[in-house]
Amino acid sequence: MANLKTKGEKMERTIKARFSNGVIKPLEKLDIEEGKEITITIERTSETTKTIESLRSSFGGWRNLIDTEELKRNIYKDRLITTRPAPKL
Q: What are phi and psi of 5, to 5 degrees?
């Protein structure tokens, strides 16, 4: 997921990286010459953000596979079935 922007002679690129043992490790190949000084902007990715992204990526996955109205009717119908014996008073 690399976003690439150029501003005049500046090049901006957004990549994913992992911080481990005090070192920031890119998760993608970088086209930067060895020893080149760069500026890094840190943006945290929260677990909530990851969860929301996962939900959005799966949105609509069941579309046209099941009849949701029939599923809801069956769920409510099944809730009416009693499997426990009546209590003796």
A: -135, 145
Q: Model pTM?
A: 0.39
CB neighbours of residue 13 within 10 Å: 14
Q: For residue 11, what are the contacts with CB-CB under 8 A and spacing of at least 6?
A: 4, 5
Q: Which amino acid is at 73?
A: R
Shortest CA distance to 11 belongs to which of 52, 39, 35?
Answer: 39
pLDDT tens per residue across all 89 residues of the chain: 455 555 556 778 888 899 899 999 999 998 888 999 988 888 777 778 888 888 888 888 878 888 889 999 999 998 888 778 888 88
DSSP track, 30-64: ----TT-----------HHHHHHHHHHHHTTTTTT
In sequence order, the 6+-apart residues with CB closer than 8 A to the CB of 24 are 17, 18, 40
